[in-house]
Amino acid sequence: MIISTGKSTESAGLRVERGPGFPHWTAGFFLGGLTEIACGGRTWELPGRHAVILAPQTPYELLLRKPQHEVWMIFDPRPHLLEALKSAEGQATSFAVSFPDPATWAAVRAGLRDLLNWWNSTVRHEHLAENAMERVLLLALLAAARRQPTIAEERITRVCDHISEHLDREFTIGELARVACLSVSRFSWLFKESVGIAPVKFLETRRMEKARHLLLTTDLPVQEIGQQVGFSNAQHFSTRFRKMSGQSPRDFRRKPLRRFTELNPH
């Protein structure tokens, strides 16, 4: 069932943050621009011809690096689509996908046009709109299934897990390359190719994600939180936190900045 859908154009620099608790699936199909999404320890940089599908209860942070052109949808999938969206372990899983095949992307664009036309028509044809939405989501699942992770990408996943488990440590590129069993040059290139951002930026993003979580869920002093995420200097932590979040740690704890309006139909 479609909850809502539409097409949007937003300026570069917009930040959006959604906390946990949102009850519906969401999807964004990017027609242009460059959108950065941090979600579940991963960061995706998504230009045009990409899509992201986010499971319910999934917090994320979004930053528009370039002006964004997107068709978005909020939905509760019917049983057959829900099963297709689940992982092999039966869990609702968020994922991003690209559409390198021109024919598949053309089919996606056609489906998105049908979705918006049927949804926005004078007499709304919800069943036809839903069929168009399911078509583009199934095309996204097909594109994702065609791309299996390589051994090299599995090594990058191992590095991401290693970073996430030791956010209080300092890392060198050489040390991370050794975890991946790759040369420094090969590791640096492959990490950016697989994750979408450089290792240093990934590390700082994960540190700030954990810092925000600790600020909202504990009474730990700001300095101690900074130490837990790898900043021995409290001032440096505050400066970096403000640059990435738009607020100081203390301000964030008092009143977290939210620029995402939650949709709650009830």
The helix content, as a percent range, equals 40-55%
CATH superfamily of the largest domain: Regulatory protein AraC
Q: Largest sheet, described in full?
A: 7 strands, antiparallel
The number of helices is: 10
Number of strands: 7
Query: What is the CATH architecture descriptor of the largest domain?
Result: Sandwich
How would you describe the shape? Answer: globular
* Order of helix and strand elements from N to C terminus: EEEEEEHEHHHHHHHHH
Question: Could you please describe the fold and organization of this structure?
Answer:
The chain is of the alpha+beta class. The chain has helices at residues 79-85, 102-120, 126-146, 151-165, 173-180, 184-195, 199-217, 222-228, 234-245, 249-254; strands at 2-10, 15-18, 25-39, 42-47, 50-54, 60-75, 95-98. It contains 10 helices and 7 strands. Strands 1, 2, 3, 4, 5, 6 and 7 form a 7-stranded antiparallel β-sheet that branches. Strand 3 (25-39) and strand 4 form a beta hairpin. Helix 2 packs antiparallel against helix 3 (126-146) and helix 4 (151-165) packs across helix 5 (173-180).
